[in-house]
């Protein structure tokens, strides 16, 4: 770890009244957007997140992060959640051009797909239902605009990739037309579902749940906001029932759905539309990583390489999602 980084953490801890650092802050593996460090002081142990500077340049970034932590803070009274600490009245702090968030350290570990059981899936399904039932009216979060029509010029990224001989260009050649088709389906579905929203975590996959003695704690609420509840249900059920190859374990999928139903009762939806809406977030994530891979929105070489890897993985993931959507509709119609 660089000396400048240590000095930054030292300043952060002193000014935030977290105490004096013991030892050296340790980089925590994982995280596709930001940097997370474990920091121990004479007052306790904390997780400190250094926010991605490129993302913080976006005009709506600060407000989105503040609102997501307000959501986490309120829902933590109802479900086991880990919101950021409020320091000097703020969730997000700034020091030496860095924006950061501080969390009390949570003991536990994330689960790899091979270790997720039906019991785990059902438990998370119940927690998702509890989040959906939470009354957030007191914090007055306005409906965000992310759910509006998404227009992405896939040909632009394709041509930029050709110029730089991007690693993913061959994969992109066979998928440009499909990307436009999926975008059209997603926008139509999103419009049909736009009259029904709840506030939720919106990224409750296994990497964002820490388990300790079989008890979960929900972390990383930065994506929290408005979402169609059935879209959120299906997407999260897939997170907790897929293996490393993308194969969906039917038993775990229905365990998640049943956990949800135990809290929220019977569920009904236009499932083909719900599944088509599922393309939207994946396509948005693909575009963001195309920008990182092409140095359009990127901080350093490490992030550029991560963007390239994510482009390749996400294109494959979307194709896989398209292939299994009809099977998922059949499963859901049987509920």
UniProtKB/TrEMBL annotation:
Task: Report TM segments.
Answer: none
Q: What is this protein called?
A: Aminoglycoside phosphotransferase family protein
Gene Ontology MF terms = transferase activity
Q: Which residues form the Aminoglycoside phosphotransferase domain?
A: 28-260
Q: Which Pfam families does the entry link to?
A: APH
| Keyword Transferase recorded | yes
Q: Would the keyword Transferase turn up in this protein's UniProt record?
A: yes
Name the source's superkingdom.
Answer: Bacteria
UniProt source species: Exobacillus caeni
Matching Gene3D superfamilies, A to Z?
Answer: 3.90.1200.10
* Alphabetic keyword roster: Transferase
The signal peptide stretch is none
